[in-house]
Design goal:
The protein is mainly α. It has helices at 10-26, 29-38, 43-69, 74-98. It is found in: Membrane.
Length: 113
């Protein structure tokens, strides 16, 4: 996010929080819907939705890889690690969004820009 973005209002913060937390239950869908609807109207919400979408896409790729690796039993551990990472990082992102701050998910492929 750039320094020129105005301070987000309470509604924008709430939408960003729900976008991050929605990823824990519904994968890419909340972030994709919010990003498509709000990216032009609210830079704050658009940035958070884009970041959440990139993270959820990265997780989906990780889950596909872990399902392939389940044949050699390593995939079960990888799937568990991804599940925990999803919950932890989504909560951290939601906290940052509720404070009106920028958040960048670690280990994320930036596919949507």
């Amino acid at each position: 996010m750039s320094d020129l973005i105005t301070v987000p209002n309470a509604d924008e913060k709430n939408i960003a929080v729900l976008t991050h937390l929605g990823g824990t239950l519904f994968s890419v869908f909340p972030a994709l819907i919010v990003w498509m609807l709000k990216k032009d109207n609210s830079p704050f919400v658009g940035e958070h939705a884009r970041e959440a979408l990139n993270f959820q896409i990265t997780l989906l790729i990780g889950y596909v890889i872990s399902s392939i690796l389940m044949y050699i039993l390593i995939g079960f551990m990888l799937a568990g690690i991804l599940w925990v990472a999803n919950i932890v990082f989504c909560i951290l992102a939601a906290i940052a969004a509720s404070n009106g701050e920028e958040y960048r998910y670690p280990f994320t492929l930036r596919l949507i820009s």
